[in-house]
Write a structure and sequence with these properties.
- Helices cover 31% and strands 18% of the residues.
- The protein has 9 helices and 9 strands.
- The strands form 2 sheets. Strands 1-7-4-9-3-2 form a 6-stranded antiparallel beta sheet. The protein has a 3-stranded antiparallel beta sheet with strand order 6-5-8, with no helix packed on it.
- The longest helix has 20 residues, at 24-43.
- The mean pLDDT is 93.
- Bound molecules: 2-oxoglutaric acid.
- 2-oxoglutaric acid (AKG) is lined by residues 53, 101, 146, 188, 190, 202.
Length: 266
């Protein structure tokens, strides 16, 4: 896929939508596997509802996707995803986590946040993380599309946030099979699913610069079987290799940072 236009949009506006990364049939098949992964998570004792992130039980949260089904290991390293990640973060990144949030009718918005603010203290000068959001249903305002504050990837200090950020947020709409790339500095929330009977299943692949520790270290709990099935590249991306902050060497890192700064005009 030629993603030049989307990459430029991502750098300039902090997000982009890429339709047709999966066919509708593929998105639906993965959605069904996601529900099975949710059942398996419950079976293993990791609850999927009422875990403290959402206002009620109508959100289904499935963590640990990389362990639950190999299809998620394919998605997290999908070439389109990696192309967008590299365009924003440069080549020196880790996969922080891969989780799902299925918003069912009756679900409400969670607390407004930016994902970078959860893993790195302010000020937030650089695009140090991003989410690749996989849309497994058609998503729009009615069924609870993620809502974001336009331009908030330029916010460096929490004090720069408007008094009521949620009031100015707008939804990402995208057909099933799309990915939405969202700079980790974008302030956002889940939408309320106001539909009568439409599910909204989204997967959140969160990637960050390699010096940032993961949001939750699910990778520490990968089974020996899963680890054995990973490529050397995936082991590096998951932070399972021995090297960490010196992955690229200082000179290469500086060159990558300069390139990135030139691209974002700073
Ligand atoms: O489900 C959504 O739309 C957003 C989820 C989110 O931002 C989060 O879980 O941190």
């Amino acid at each position: 896929m030629d993603l030049q236009a989307q990459k430029a949009h991502l750098r300039e506006h902090g997000w982009c939508v890429v339709p047709n990364v999966l066919s509708r049939a593929e998105a639906d098949a993965i959605r069904q596997r996601l529900w099975r992964a949710g059942d398996e998570s419950e079976r293993r004792g990791v609850p999927t509802r009422n875990i403290g992130l959402d206002p009620n039980e109508h959100n289904v949260r499935i963590f640990y996707l990389l362990e639950l089904d190999p299809v998620f290991r394919d998605l997290i390293q999908h070439p389109a995803a990696i192309d967008l990640v590299t365009a924003l973060l440069g080549p020196d990144f880790i996969i922080s986590n891969f989780t799902a949030n299925i918003a069912l009718p009756g679900s409400q918005s969670m607390r407004v946040h930016s994902d970078l603010s959860i893993v790195a203290p302010e000020p937030w000068y650089h695009p140090w993380s991003l989410n690749i959001i996989w849309c497994l249903n058609d998503v729009d305002e009615e069924n609870g599309a993620t809502r974001y504050l336009p331009g908030s990837h330029r916010i460096r200090w929490r004090s720069e946030l408007p008094v009521d950020p949620a009031a100015q947020m707008v939804p990402f709409s995208a057909p099933a099979g799309s990915i939405v790339a969202m700079d980790g500095r974008i302030w956002h929330t889940s939408g309320a699913n106001l539909s009568k009977d439409r599910e909204r299943a989204l997967l959140f692949g969160y990637y960050s610069s390699s010096f940032i520790r993961p949001q939750v270290n699910w990778n520490a709990a990968l089974s020996p079987e899963t680890i054995a099935a990973l490529s050397p590249q995936m082991k590096e991306w998951l932070g399972l290799g021995v090297r960490a902050n010196v992955k690229l060497g200082t000179r290469l890192r500086e060159a990558a940072t300069q390139k990135l700064q030139a691209a974002v005009g700073e």
